[in-house]
Amino acid sequence: MEVTMTTTSGSSQNITLSDAVFAADYNEAVIHQVVVAYMAKARSGTKAQKSRSEVSGGGAKPWRQKGTGRARAGTSRSPIWRTGGVTFAAKPRDYSQKVNRKMYRAAMRSILSELVRQQRLVIADNLNIESAKTRLLLNALGDHAKASTLIVTAEDDETLYLSSRNLHDALWLAASEVEPIHLVGYEKIVMTEDALKKIEERLA
User: Rounded to the nearest 5°, which phi and psi values hold at 116?
Assistant: First the structure.
């Protein structure tokens, strides 16, 4: 299909895109599952607490069973004691979820198609800035710098990385690093035409 897209300079540009990648139906359920799986995989899962059997000490009965007027106690490491273990102690665990390749690609196609329909996908036509200066990048982005912006190029670009890292709500990524959570997390997605074609090849 041929789509008219806004460029960073404010003009319009006709570009031919694949129907399979950029004209897919919006599938909220698949997008949600893939984004949740991505966020879950980022969790460290290293939280650990000690249960009553793992807390040191507590081997002797604190006082005799009867005659003291106090509640009976068998160990000073009971969960109801201040120095005791934790009743349901947290243990290290893996939070990652399995996402099939077919589901991942379906989510990416659905998000990209919705970005095109909402006119949030912008073609970058002048991102070849001379040096790593935030001011130069802001000038290149134009009005799109006012919104939270994801900048995507076909290959690694250290100049863009250094220029964008000082912006409050902007992120630069190479096309191979783009994930669904990045696409849904920014108001504007600014891509070079080469990056757009590279993502299209990856999802075709």
Answer: -65, -45
